[in-house]
Amino acid sequence: MGAIPAQRETVTRASGAPAYGGVGAETRTTLPGSALSPGSARTLVRNALTEWAASGLPGTEHLSDRIVDDAVVVVSELVTNAVVHAGTDVELACRLEDETGALLVEVLDHHPSRAPRDGDAEAPYETPEYGRGLRLVSRLAESWGVTYRTGAKTVWARLPAEDPVAARDDIEAYAQERALERGLRVAEILAPEPLRAERERDWLNRGALSFLAEASDLLAGQLDENLVAALAGQLIVPRLADWCAVWLEDEVAGRWGYPRSGEAEGGWAVDGTAGTGPRLARVWHGSENLIEDLRRALEKEPPLPPDTHRTGPVTYPWPGEALGARGVRGTALAYRLVAGGRPLGTLVIGRADLMRFPDEITGLVEDLSRRVALAIGAARQYARQATISRVLQRGLLPGAVAEIPGVASALVYEPCDKGGPSGDFYDLFPAGDGRWCFAIGDVQGKGPEAAVVIGIARPWLRLLAREGYRVADVLDRLNQLLLDDATEAADAAARALVGPVAPGDGPQTRFLSLLYGELTPFDGGIRCTLASAGHPLPLLLGAGGEVHTAAHPQTLLGVVEDVTYTSETFELLSGDTLLCVTDGVTERRSGSRQFDDGDGLATALAGCSGLNAQLIAERIRRLVHEFSGRPPDDDLALLVLQAE
């Protein structure tokens, strides 16, 4: 498979590196986050520099074969690093300073896009190329650095035009190091400690802060505690330890005070059979064939630290029997995962053939464990809120949609925010005396405020309908109810502030758009009376394929006092279909266009002639989703009522 062709464009200036001189020639491209991108980047830069030199652009008189080769190596390393760690599209920029002949290289990625992957798809844990990339860049470049922005990271390097000897010596030393790598691995097996310690000191001096920054970005975006545990293991192994395990505390217990049948010296449980202990959420080892044996061994000795507030490392029993011939001896340390004063779990690391972890490693893992604890705490908080929201959402919507004699109904309901209450709601219920009522509404905003309004509106709709109030009267009373409730909320806020509330400072009026109707079956069809209060107008599809609106627009509920609403009555005959939607359908966007521009919804409904209610609902839903390549950014609800 060949390299991906790269498209270049001329730009005025990239953004990551500082400016040293006037900008001469410059090229920029965007590459996908794939293994082919480093090769494409090398080809792009070499071709660009060759073209600049042939064209005699300002600054090219300083170009030499050495700086071209250096630029190709640096670009290759930076793009490889971005592809491996971020996995996003990579933006590459290379520019030549016309005065000095120095080259500035920038590689931008949109971190963190993907987590480290499990399974065979992950590259084997040899000495990774990207583990030496920034060290090589630091040797070749006069200066380099990292610039963080919201959702993006730029690594830049400036390559000087002079002093070719030192840089070539570094390249030759690097090449010799890679050529002898296999021999060094054999030596490491025989005497691992001095070699590994030297590598770690070099890495800690250069990359520890960058490692913690990248780890924080990666962990902060996760909303599942099990995924956080998995990422923690993959961040630590094999860079800092041979293996890692994460236990998660039972949140119901909230303490480490699990009953045990016995404890060893230092507070570790020696009998895991009694009581309910922490859950072993994740085990990770540099050799995948040892993971299951290690898991079984660790499950027998869950951690039980005596100090519930200590986050520093304490020794943990070495599971030598699970680690094969090379793992007979070693050292393991446990770190408490504490956030907000609450114990959340324990992180354990281990390394074979080691009597004591270096202080630099223990300190770095302790810093990382704090970040892991914060991420787990945030994930649990999100899970609690999501659970509350789901329960609340279920309480705000009907448990089942009523069946109406002579009417087929179909419903589509898709909240945009899966983790919070939606602003859209619907209902279809019997009102007594041979009447059925339906409603579809949209509250201004989302979340708890929307839930409050829905919690007021939906029960009152049912109550008023069952008390015999007609459609227009129901809207009149619901409008006044929302206004009264907003006034009471503003008065309460004023009392809490001990002073008058300026206009616009207190709780805002709770607007509600609502389409509400009443259905009464009769011989030969269904009589429908409805009214729209600031809501997208319903559409009526006749049996012959004609489409027209079935109501006229009126004011939103909760806005104007003493407004009087009116209703309209018509008949649904066999095959007639009434379509009711929220603005998540009509205002679905694709660029500057909306789905209902040019009567788009009516056109879509006309194309549903001859379909039953369920097929009509599914087709409209599909057309709305296909209108734009982006996910919907608003709640979507639609109700189809069809006379049989």
Task: Chart the SSEs and their pairings.
Layout: E1 23-31, H1 37-55, H2 65-85, E2 90-97, E3 103-109, H3 129-140, E4 143-149, E5 152-159, H4 164-179, H5 181-190, H6 192-220, H7 225-236, E6 243-248, E7 279-285, H8 291-299, E8 314-315, E9 330-339, E10 342-352, H9 359-396, E11 407-414, E12 424-432, E13 435-443, H10 447-466, H11 471-497, E14 512-522, E15 525-533, E16 539-541, E17 547-549, E18 568-573, E19 577-581, H12 583-586, E20 589-590, E21 593-594, H13 600-606, H14 613-626, E22 636-643
Antiparallel strand pairs: 1-2, 2-3, 3-5, 4-5, 6-7, 6-10, 8-9, 9-10, 11-22, 12-13, 13-14, 14-15, 15-18, 16-17, 16-19, 19-22, 20-21
Helix pairs in contact: 1-2, 2-3, 5-6, 6-9, 7-9, 9-10, 10-11
Overall description:
By secondary structure, the chain is an alpha+beta fold. The chain is built from 14 helices and 22 strands. It has a 5-stranded antiparallel sheet. A hairpin with a 5-residue loop joins strand 16 and strand 17 (about 545-550). Helix 1 (about 35-55) runs antiparallel to helix 2 (about 65-85) and helix 7 runs antiparallel to helix 9 (about 360-395).
